Amino acid sequence: MNDATPLNADQQELDKFSQLAHRWWDPSSEFKPLHDINPLRLEYIDSLAGLSAKHVLDVGCGGGILSESMAARGANVTGIDLGEKALKVAKLHLLESGQKVDYRLIAVEALAQQEAGQYDVVTCMEMLEHVPDPASIVRACSQLVKPGGQVFFSTLNRNLKSYLFAVIGAEYVLNMLPRGTHEYAKFLKPSELARHCRASGLVVDEVTGMSYNPLSKVYSLGKDTSVNYMLACRREA
Ligand SMILES: C[S@@+](CC[C@H](N)C(=O)[O-])C[C@H]1O[C@@H](n2cnc3c(N)ncnc32)[C@H](O)[C@@H]1O
Question: How confident is the model over 18-29, as a mean pLDDT?
Fold first, then answer.
């Protein structure tokens, strides 16, 4: 990637998050789902990667919900995003929490040119469904992690159920998210994401579902990958 390379980003998507950025740390705001799933994904990542003292990159970190929680587990975290406002909010929140995270405004493809193979763990959560070319993000994440290091992705599956739950249910019935948050065509089937991973030199260790029960309003991890899911990968040594 050089200065002439077009940015792998959708400005409308970045604007959507920027407009809401001031509410990022309000657990009852549009970002409530991220607050609600964070303990689950943090525990999952920590249990597989052992975050303490690891050099971790959080790609598409937004306001820093996951980045900060990983720092609180003892990781040395860098968070990158292309949303300026979200990063400002993330930096401000460090003053409140006392955590340490290195937040930077840079595309993951550009960082891969500068810091290839420097991270023990790379996380890229709830971001691939917002970019024009997810395969390019996966490739850059793979370049950034050390041989033998781990990469974690989470995104939305693409099928009738995920359309009904993640778009109709969350945006139109339960009003959990603003309308237009998700574009169905950008959702990724686990097989498609796994193919991008393998093409980038990543071995997929496991696929885990993240489900929401609208009656109990509780999220849980399990085998059901039909709506939201996480992929745990390892860079070939
Ligand atoms: C749903 S939020 C997820 C934030 C965070 N990863 C989390 O799960 O708590 C999506 C984030 O992706 C960021 N984003 C979208 N396109 C991006 C791109 N091309 N490069 C970097 N970040 C991007 C947005 O600015 C936003 O912060």
Answer: 95
Q: Which helix (H) or strand (E) holds 11?
A: helix 11-20
Atom 3 of ligand 1, residue of closest alpha carbon: 126
Annotation-wise, does 1 bind a ligand?
A: no
Inside any domain, residue 3: no
Q: How many domains does the chain have?
A: 1
Q: What is the spatial distance between Cα 237 and Cα 173, in angstroms, rounded to a whole number?
A: 46
Residue 120 marked in a binding site: no
Q: Of all atoms in ligand 1, which is nearest to the CA of residue 124?
A: 6
pLDDT in tens, 156-209: 999 888 878 777 778 777 778 778 788 888 889 999 999 999 999 999 999 999
Domain containing residue 28: 11-235
60 assigned ligand-binding residue: yes
Query: Tell me, what's the ipTM?
Result: 0.99
Q: Which two tokens stand for residue 218?
A: 């509780």
Cβ–Cβ < 8 Å for 111, 81:
no
Size of the chain, expressed as the number of residues it contains: 237
Read off the pLDDT of residues 122-151 as tens digits, 9 standing for 90 and up: 999 999 999 999 999 999 999 999 999 999
- How far does the centroid of ligand 1 lie from the alpha carbon of residue 126, in Å? 7
Asked, for residue 46, whether it belongs to a domain, the answer is: yes
Distance between CA 138 and CA 122 in Å, rounded? 10
19 alpha carbon – ligand 1 mean position (Å): 13
Tell me, using a 6 A CB cutoff, whether residue 109 lines ligand 1. no
Mutational pocket test of ligand 1: of 44, 127, 154, the residue with most ligand atoms within 8 Å of the beta carbon: 127
